[in-house]
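Batch 3, record 17
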Amino acid sequence: DSGVTQTPKHLITATGQRVTLRCSPRSGDLSVYWYQQSLDQGLQFLIHYYNGEERAKGNILERFSAQQFPDLHSELNLSSLELGDSALYFCASSATSGLTDTQYFGPGTRLTVL
Amino acid sequence: DQQVKQNSPSLSVQEGRISILNCDYTNSMFDYFLWYKKYPAEGPTFLISISSIKDKNEDGRFTVFLNKSAKHLSLHIVPSQPGDSAVYFCAASGFGRGSTLGRLYFGRGTQLTVWP
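Prediction for the assembled complex:
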């Protein structure tokens, strides 16, 4: 158990809909990262928040947005969903945002768009 | 643009033997390299890391080797055990242009199967 929690574990929805994925980092960790793992793809970095502020963006679609709240939990919002958005979404947390801070991953949310 | 590559999607090794998983990268600005292990229905679990100032790091049965000139790293598992059967991801991070501090670039993973 990494200490990172993600809800829900599974999500099935239809195209055009909007969903929210939630992540609670390990106790004391200030950084939250979101990654997407599509079929046959490695984990692709989406976005990084540190202590409530956005620090870096990867190849995150404009239909996707995220935020980190004062209690440090984070939410990833996916809207106007398309079939291709079906993937595993992982959240990771680290103590700060340093280069050598180990990122600890949650169990992921499996999103299926029908 | 796959900056971290794991060219072997699978590897099968007998219990007790050495497992060698390979990883290549293209971005010379990467400073820090990690290996993660992933079991089905779980998130990746950190295994071992190495800084670019070193060429070897060891932790129990796991050793990571870094060859900066070849932009290549490898993970050695000795001896291999059936419980090591999982997908292994290589990841890299770094400062500088073309990379973002703290962001990890992942390979596509190698499925290791250790048979008795």
